[in-house]
Amino acid sequence: MQPLHILLLIAAYFGILLLISYFTGKNSGNDAFFKANRQSPWYIVAFGMIGASLSGVTFISVPGWIEASQFSYMQVVLGYILGYTVIGTVLLPLYYKLNLTSIYTYLDQRFGNYSYKTGASFFLLSRVVGASFRLFLVANVLQSILFDALGVPFWVTVIITILLIWLYTFKSGIKTIVWTDTLQTLFMLIAVGVAIYYVSDDLGIQGSNLLGYVLESDLSKMFFFDDFKSANYFWKQFLSGAFIAIVMTGLDQDMMQKNLTCRSLKDAQKNMFWFTIVLTIVNFIFLGLGLLLTQYASQNGIDAHKDQLFPVIATQSGLGFGIAIFFVLGLIAAAYSSADSALTSLTTSFSIDILDIEKKYNPTDQVKTRKKIHILFSFILVLVIIAFKYLIKDESVIAKLFVFAGYTYGPLLGLYAFGLFTKLKVKDNLVPIIAILSPILSYIISENSDLWFGFKFGFFILILNGFLTFLGLLLSAILILIRRK
C-alpha cells in the first residue's frame, strides 16, 4: 500500500465528515453544541456509541491481547452488561429528571460546590488522558505506515490529527458527532469484517466453519475460575467490567452527553439496551479476529505482537490491497469516533462545570468562550499525546487505559454511589482531599498487594478506589453527626 493511497483515503474520509458538519452546523448555538437540541433519534445514538466505546484502542489492542490473555477480556465485557443495566435503570432516570447538560451538576445539588468541582475535575483529567491514549495509538500507527515514509515528524502527525477533529466539531459539537459517529461505526465494522474474511480465507477456513474454528481453539478460553489471586480471575474481571461500564459510560460526560441528546428518557433507555447487546457481540468478533491474526502470524513466521499484530499483518503481510485499505479506514474511523466526542465533552464540562458560562456570561459571550475552550483542549491533547510518545514503551495501550481509569474514575464512583445510596451529608470542603487521597492509597495497596496478600488487583483497582472514596465520605458524614450531638 503506497503512501499516496493512504493520503487520498484520509482526504476522502474527512471530506465526508466535513460535509456532515456543514449540514448539521447550520444555525447552531451552544444548545446544539452541548445537547443537539435534544432531538437525536435513539437508534442513531445507539449505533454511533458503539464506535465511540470501542475506539482505536479496541481496534488495535484487543486483537493483540489474545496471544497472552486468550478470550479472558470477554469476562470484562460480560460485566459491562450489568454495568449498562445500572446506567439505564438508575443513572439515566436521574439525569433526565434533573434535566442536566453536564452530569456533574448533580454533585453540586447533592453535596455542594467543592464536590461538584472535584467530580468535574476528575472527569477532565480522565478524559484528557483517555482520549490521548487512544489518539496516541492511532497516530503511532499512521506514523509507521505513512508519515515516516514521507519524512513527517510525529509531532506534525499529532497536530494534523487534532486539527482535523477540530475542523468538523468546532461549530456544532455533539449535534454533528451523533451523525459522524454513526458513519464511523459503520466503517469500523466493515473493516473488521473484511479483515476476518481475508485472514480466514488464507488460513483455509470456510465461512460456515469459522465460529467452530474459533471456539475449538485453545486461544478461545474465556472463563478463568482457577486462581482467585490472578488478575484474570472471572469474578475480578466481571465485577471490574461492571464498574468500568458504570464509570466510563454512566459517570462520563463524554458518553452520557450522547444519551442526553435523545428526545426522552424512554428513547435513551432503548438506546442503552440495544447498544449493550450489539457492543457485546462486536467485542466477541474483535476477539475472534485477534485469534485468527495470532494463528496467521504463527503459521507465517510473522514476528508481531500486542498492538503491532493487526497493523503489521494488515499492511505488510501480502494479504492484499483490500485488507490494507480497509484497515486504515477502520483505524481512522475507530479513533475519531471516540476522539471527536472527547474533545466536545471536555469543552462542555470545562465551560459549564468550571467556568459556569451559563450563569456568568450572556449568550453571545457564551459562544465566544466555548470556542476558545475548544481550541484550548485541542492544544492540550496535542501536548499530552506527544508526551506519551516518550512514556509508553511496551505494554498494550488498552491495559494501561483501564488501569489508569481505575485511579481517576474511582473517586467519581465513590461520590455517586454515596450520593445515590445514602441520604447522609458530607463535609463538602473535605471532598477534594478525600478524592485525592483515595487514588494514592489505592496505588500503595495495589503495588504491595501481591507481597502483602498474594493478591493482584488488576482492573479491580477501580472498585478498591471507589470503596476508599466511599469510606472517606462516610467518615466525613459521621463527623458531622458527632458534632451535631
Largest sheet: none
Radius of gyration: 22 Å
What level of helicity do the residues show? Answer: over 70%
Give the strand content: under 5%
Quote the distance from N terminus to C terminus: 75 Å
Number of strands: 0
Low-confidence stretches: none
Structural class: mainly alpha
What do the pLDDT scores average to? 86
How would you spell out the order of helices and strands? HHHHHHHHHHHHHHHHHHHH
The number of helices is 20
Structural write-up:
The protein has 485 residues and is an all-alpha fold. Helix content is 78%, strand content 0%. The protein has 20 helices and no strands. The chain is globular. The termini are far apart.
Gist?
By secondary structure, this protein is mostly helical. The chain has 20 helices and no strands.
Question: Could you name the key traits of this structure?
Answer:
485 residues, mainly alpha, 20 helices
Element layout with pairings:
Layout: H1 3-24, H2 30-35, H3 42-69, H4 73-98, H5 105-110, H6 113-147, H7 154-169, H8 174-202, H9 210-216, H10 234-250, H11 253-259, H12 265-299, H13 309-316, H14 321-354, H15 357-360, H16 363-391, H17 397-408, H18 410-421, H19 431-453, H20 461-484
Helix pairs in contact: 1-7, 1-8, 1-14, 3-6, 3-8, 3-12, 3-14, 4-10, 4-12, 6-7, 6-14, 6-16, 6-17, 7-16, 8-12, 8-14, 11-14, 13-14, 14-16, 17-20, 18-20, 19-20
